[in-house]
Amino acid sequence: MSLPKTLAEDVARNLVMVARLIDEDPEEAYAYSRIALRLASRVAAVREAAGFAAYATQKYSEALAEFRAARRMTGSVELWPVMADCERGLGRPRRRWRWPASRGAEAGQGRPGRDAAGGRRGTP
Prior knowledge:
Blueprint: H1 5-21, H2 26-39, H3 44-56, H4 60-74, H5 80-89, H6 101-107
Helix pairs in contact: 1-2, 1-3, 2-3, 3-4, 4-5
């Protein structure tokens, strides 16, 4: 998705602040991510950054929603491990995403037969 130049610059400034602050002041990083989200919610990188900021502040339900949105936008499975960790944070450790065997093997993103949390398929 393409944004007008001034809007893209505003979004970029907020995302830079998220990256700078996420380790030292996650709440402030989260606030910047919410601004970026209001400005450009249809941009996958913004949804992903908002997810990581929510994750850093232990807002796992919100983080999961943002990661799901980013995954739908990109089709990538790279966020599945952190999505599985959000499920654990929500008290649902047995709920996991399955790596699609053919897709994971083709993309080199994990071994077929393993889920996103690292357990074997079929394990409760």
